[in-house]
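Would you be willing to look carefully at the protein I have copied below?

:::
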Amino acid sequence: MMYSEEVLKHFYQASHGGVLKDPSYVSQVGSQEEGRILQLSVFFSEGRFIKVRFKAHGCPVLIACGEWLSKHLEGCSLEDIRKITGNKIIEALQLKSNETYSAYLAEDLLRQLIEGLS
């Protein structure tokens, strides 16, 4: 299977992997049974995401989604991230139709994060 250039870039050059110590909030979706888990830990202060790290168990596309989200959330407000959808992630990472599940899982993670911080 050939991944898009964007998926490979975010997979191989992931710099936001890991878990923050004493985060403001941790959000997680997926399960071991599904074979996919995506988690974000965030420092949120004065209405903005200061630092974001992801942890992923799954395919390269899921890892690329975690990296893309982490990069794009830093500096954003809750209002900013309400505009991020699975379709936006699909477009940004140039995902094929059989790879979109990871983007929608990432969108579920964002909605959970928004709800938890609101």
